[in-house]
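Q: what sequence does this backbone want?
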């Protein structure tokens, strides 16, 4: 790949009552450019990942990064949307621009302000990413869709409630050390395993502890042409792979628990990079629901089909395991402000590779895998990052 990440920024995730969508975008725009050692006038192009769809009333946001500095005026800027993979979609547009020779330096911002709407309205907005002709009436919205995946998996391979609870507990335990995380409390396995007043069933067999939360937040990266980065950047994170795969949208046209699009994206990434899963130091993966992480273990090749529970039950994916998965706390603890998520994953991976990840640091991280997914396993992005400077 002929682009590198040379700077980044990240807000805390959560219910950010003092921030609006503009302030979130402006904040990470300025901080990422400064972190790259650049000035706003150095930016050739901007891509803004923002799901929107009614979470905020204002819909046309592509020029909001320009609010950060008058020197950004007239910089071409485009809003990108691809469901829960919106952030990675925006980043890929930046990579494509550099690959085409159109730009040398690209700012990619991912941002979402989800907490201005409440309850049923949130579910109504999110279900719009499903195939409404067949899936629009699913109870509990997207939790219901992933609940049906979990039940299908249980029917085929046996009840895996213990494994889902261990995934939730792992990610909350990891999130304690992440200063950007929405939830920084170790909930423990017993809490995550049992139904209670504080952990009710949401979409059987998924409980509240199996579901990522509504969240506000933003993240940004500065991309630079690789040759330019090698000579002028103070730090540079290169892409060994950056793959994008889309599957059919209707769940009825797929084996919904095979996660074939996820598997295909990982296979392409390994083929492009010449690497294998065993080469990776850690993975940040899309755990919008705990069952998604379980299925992703199998899709990335960590276990055979139907045996994903082994990875968590035997400690493989713990921070000190053979392949730490979501040392950041994942979407489950960190939060999932939709447009920001994919960019956030790349920021935190870059921090791992530069040894600046603080309490979530995996020792001697050299290669980091990232998987970001949109919809009901419809759009899939895999990156493999390494430090080049």
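A:
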């Amino acid at each position: 790949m002929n682009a590198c990440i040379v700077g980044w920024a990240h807000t805390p995730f959560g219910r950010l009552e003092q921030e609006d969508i503009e302030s979130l975008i402006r904040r990470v725009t300025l901080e990422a450019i400064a972190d790259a050692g650049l000035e706003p006038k150095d930016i050739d192009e901007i891509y803004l990942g923002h799901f929107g769809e009614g979470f905020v009333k204002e819909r046309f946001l592509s020029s909001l990064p320009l609010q950060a500095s008058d020197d950004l005026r007239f910089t071409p800027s485009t809003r990108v949307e691809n469901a829960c993979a919106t952030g990675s979609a925006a980043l890929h547009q930046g990579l494509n621009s550099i690959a085409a020779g159109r730009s040398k330096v690209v700012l990619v911002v991912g941002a979402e302000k989800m907490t201005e709407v409440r309850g049923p309205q949130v579910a109504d907005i999110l279900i719009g990413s499903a195939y409404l002709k067949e899936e629009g009436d699913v109870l509990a919205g997207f939790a219901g869709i992933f609940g049906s995946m979990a039940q299908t998996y249980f029917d085929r391979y046996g009840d895996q409630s213990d494994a889902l609870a261990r995934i939730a507990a792992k990610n909350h335990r990891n999130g304690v050390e992440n200063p950007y995380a929405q939830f920084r409390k170790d909930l423990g396995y017993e809490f995550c395993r049992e139904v209670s007043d504080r952990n009710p069933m949401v979409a059987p067999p998924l409980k509240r502890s199996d579901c990522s939360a509504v969240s506000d937040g933003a993240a940004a990266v500065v991309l630079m042409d690789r040759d330019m980065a090698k000579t002028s950047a103070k730090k540079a994170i290169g892409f060994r792979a950056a793959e994008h795969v889309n599957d059919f949208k209707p769940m009825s046209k797929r084996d919904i628990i095979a996660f074939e699009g996820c598997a295909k994206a990982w296979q392409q990434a390994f083929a492009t990079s010449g690497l294998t899963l065993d080469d990776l130091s850690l993975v940040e993966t899309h755990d919008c629901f705990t069952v998604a992480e379980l299925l992703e273990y199998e899709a990335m090749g960590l276990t055979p089909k139907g045996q994903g529970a082994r990875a968590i039950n035997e400690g493989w994916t713990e921070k000190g395991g053979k392949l730490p998965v979501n040392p950041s706390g994942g979407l489950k603890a960190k939060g999932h402000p939709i447009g920001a998520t994919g960019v956030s994953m790349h920021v935190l991976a870059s921090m791992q590779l530069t040894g600046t990840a603080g309490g979530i640091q995996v020792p001697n991280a050299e290669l980091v895998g990232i998987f970001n997914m949109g919809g009901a396993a419809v759009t899939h992005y895999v990156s493999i990052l390494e430090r080049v400077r």
